[in-house]
Write a structure and sequence with these properties.
The protein contains no helices and twelve strands. The protein is mainly β. It has a single domain, classed as Jelly Rolls. Strands 1-12-5-10 form a four-stranded antiparallel beta sheet, with no helix packed on it. Strands 2-11-6-9 form a four-stranded antiparallel beta sheet, with no helix packed on it. A hairpin with a 4-residue loop joins strand 7 and strand 8. The N and C termini lie close together (about 5 Å). The mean pLDDT is about 90.
Length: about 130
């Protein structure tokens, strides 16, 4: 297995939840030369999210939300969105400021971090961490 330290992803939030980062489901789409659907589960990527930065790049105050949705392998889809998945809800952020959220989230293949803001296109997010393949 290889550890890759990286910027996992970046996104500008809207008022609807959008993907910040999703752990890749698998590194291969074939097993012994045969195409597999869904992707081969035996070859999973995992991730450790060390921090998420939220930056309000406008002069107006805003607030943001972050939620974590688990991938359900039995349904080959993400769990239905609900309130139990919120990591941060309606967190205020001043204009022209950044909040650094120190985390130690361990994610499995398919798990997804989603973000939103009270106002569209005012808050950007960066997720930093390690992908383990």
């Amino acid at each position: 297995m290889a550890d890759v330290f990286k910027i996992l992803d970046q996104v500008i939030a809207t008022t609807s939840y959008a993907e910040l980062y999703q752990v890749p489901l698998a590194a291969a789409t074939t097993v012994d030369g045969v195409n597999v659907v869904p992707k081969a589960i035996f070859n999973q990527t995992q991730a450790i999210v060390g921090s998420i930065m939220a930056c309000n790049y406008t002069t107006s105050a805003d607030s943001f939300n972050i939620r974590l949705r688990k991938y359900d392998f039995s349904a080959s889809d993400l769990e239905t969105a609900n309130d139990k998945q919120h990591l941060f809800k309606s967190v205020p952020i001043a204009g022209n400021s950044t909040r650094v959220l120190k985390l130690a989230l361990t994610l499995s293949a398919g798990d997804i971090i989603e973000v939103s803001a009270a106002s569209a296109t005012t808050v950007s997010f960066t997720a930093m961490g390690i992908e383990v393949t």
